[in-house]
Amino acid sequence: MNKRADSVILCFIFLFILPAALWAKDIDAALQWSRKVELSTPVSGIVTEALVNIGDHVRKGQPLMKLDERPFKAEVEKAKAGVKRLEVKHREAEGELKRAKEMHERELLADHELELARIGSLTSDAEYKAAQAVLTKAELDLEYSVVKAPFDGIILNRTIEIGQTIISAMQPAPMFTLAESGYMVARIKIPDKGLAALSLGQKASVKVSGKEYKGVISRIGMEPVGVSEGGSLYEVDIRFSIGPSAIIRPGQKAVATLP
User: Fold this and answer.
1) Distance between CA atoms of 201 and 215, rounded to whole angstroms?
2) What is the pLDDT of residues 107-134, one digit of tens each?
3) Strands across the sheet with 153-158, in order?
4) Cα-atom radius of gyration of the chain, to the nearest Å?
5) pTM of the model
6) Which residues have CB under 8 Å from 133's CB, separation 6+?
7) Cα–Cα distance for residue pair 22/10, rounded to 1 Å
8) CB-side neighbour CA atoms (13 Å) of 194
């Protein structure tokens, strides 16, 4: 009985305690941006304002670039006029249908005439909704003429200049590259035998230039990225906060410590 209990304890140690202990050590890490996006616009036009430069820190919603807004505003006004015109036409068609129904109930109007009134009402309703859609599209295009930061970050690259013509009919070209500020990711590689001791949200630490940062495991790779003596290697990301004023760049040396 004692031998069986000892065996169970040993199995528990090998399966759960040892893997955790094996990885409670320093591991070389590669620093990455926590989030990085290329920004562009789906509309075409002429750049009138380039508001940020490489290295600038920006806030969420801050304008980065503006196209000449005049053609977009003109399209909005044109669409509004179309909506107003068809709104009047739609009300008239609805009034005609109402009168046609009343006359039909009093047997003063033939079925065919009532059906024509229904068709007229449906047609005007469709035209009115189509005009509203055109207005929505024009308003969106006006909104898209200004490129804004989707989150707090730092400008890594800028490819546009004032006076440049932007053509986005086929595939919008990147105008800015933006990286999230305040956070970084330390990417490490772990042999498969160490993955069982890890979980998303698990606490970890990262040391950069002698300073230690607290973070959590944000991603555990699903496919191997290499092979070592300990087996297949999998990427594990540790996301950590560096504060708004700290400057850390990808490529700097870092060391991660898992629990």
Assistant:
1) 9
2) 776 777 867 778 878 888 888 899 999 9
3) 36-39, 176-180, 153-158, 57-58
4) 31
5) 0.75
6) none
7) 16
8) 24
Q: How far apart are CA 186 and CA 236, in angstroms?
A: 8
Q: Which pair of structure tokens corresponds to residue 57?
A: 């820190």
H/E element, 179: strand 176-180
Helical residues (DSSP H) of the chain, grouped into ranges: 2-12, 18-22, 70-105, 111-144
Class of domain 23-35+180-257: mainly beta
Residues 6+ apart with CB under 8 A from 35: 151, 153, 179, 180, 183
Fold exhibited by the domain 37-66+149-179: OB fold (Dihydrolipoamide Acetyltransferase, E2P) (2.40.50)
**Which tens digit of pLDDT belongs to each residue from 230-248?**
789 999 999 999 987 677 8
